[in-house]
Amino acid sequence: MKFLSTIATLGLAVTASCTPKPGNGKLPTKIFHGVEVVDTQIVRDAQAVIKDFDPFLKHHSLRTWLFGAAAINANATLKSKIDLELHAVTCILHDLGWDMTPGSEWISQEHRFEVDGGLGALRWVKAHKQGKKWDEIRLEKMYDAIALHGSPGLSPGKNLDVQFALTSIAFDNPGARNPLIPEKEYNSILAGLPNEDIGAGTNQTWVWLAATKPGATYNTIVEPFGTAFVPGYSAIGHRVFDLINPGFQGSS
Ligand SMILES: *[C@@H]1O[C@H](CO)[C@@H](O)[C@H](O)[C@H]1NC(C)=O
Ligand SMILES: *[C@@H]1O[C@H](CO)[C@@H](O)[C@H](O)[C@H]1NC(C)=O
Prior knowledge:
A two-stranded antiparallel sheet has the order 1-2. The protein has helices at 2-18, 41-49, 55-73, 76-81, 84-93, 113-127, 136-148, 160-170, 183-192, 198-212, 223-229, 240-244, and strands at 29-32, 35-38. Helix 5 packs across helix 7 (136-148) and helix 5 crosses helix 8 (160-170). Helices cover 54% and strands 3% of the residues. The longest helix has 19 residues, at 55-73. It has 2 domains: 10-196, Hypothetical protein af1432; 202-244.
């Protein structure tokens, strides 16, 4: 009996240390575009990172955070389980790899945009006064969510934090309101941060990526944008397909 109760106690301790309470209840919040969001220094500073981005990109990044926060607020289970500060920073910084500012510190020549975004966010968080306290698991969740967000279909099997960051990012895909986002908050977010330019802005960014660093776009979601719209762009010879079918002439 003693043995069993020791095991039971250990079990509880292990569960508690594997799934630390995110401490959401203790975080300061504010109302932003009609949505209650966490308002810590690192979340404020993450917003400052993207404040001079193209308005389409800045608004897209903020909408993913706010749509996600509105959906989380509407579900007590999600609100108690998701690390809200991690969610905020991940969403706000998820598209650093789309920054078309000349000489952008976030853009590499060799990496696809999701990796530029993930590496940039890691660099930034690790250098931040509060971010220095983030543990490896939190950093890895942020990186994973950003790195996976351009490859639809990979979220099953990931932890809830990564899954819901991916869900939040997808909330801003062109199309109708996802029913997980309450209508009132959806409308107040769009009133402040209109989304009419999301399709054209994404298109322009991906055409730019295909034109300026084609080698980082083959075998990615960006490739067809290069094929369709960038003169001289050809993925043929660079695709995984070509490894298996070298010299195949039947495709264009
Ligand atoms: C809240 O979210 C959880 C996890 O996604 C889901 O299983 C549950 O059905 C949701 N609850 C409500 C009331 O929507
Ligand atoms: C995408 O960009 C190409 C090249 O600039 C342009 O021809 C096309 O109309 C754009 N599509 C959208 C939806 O903006």
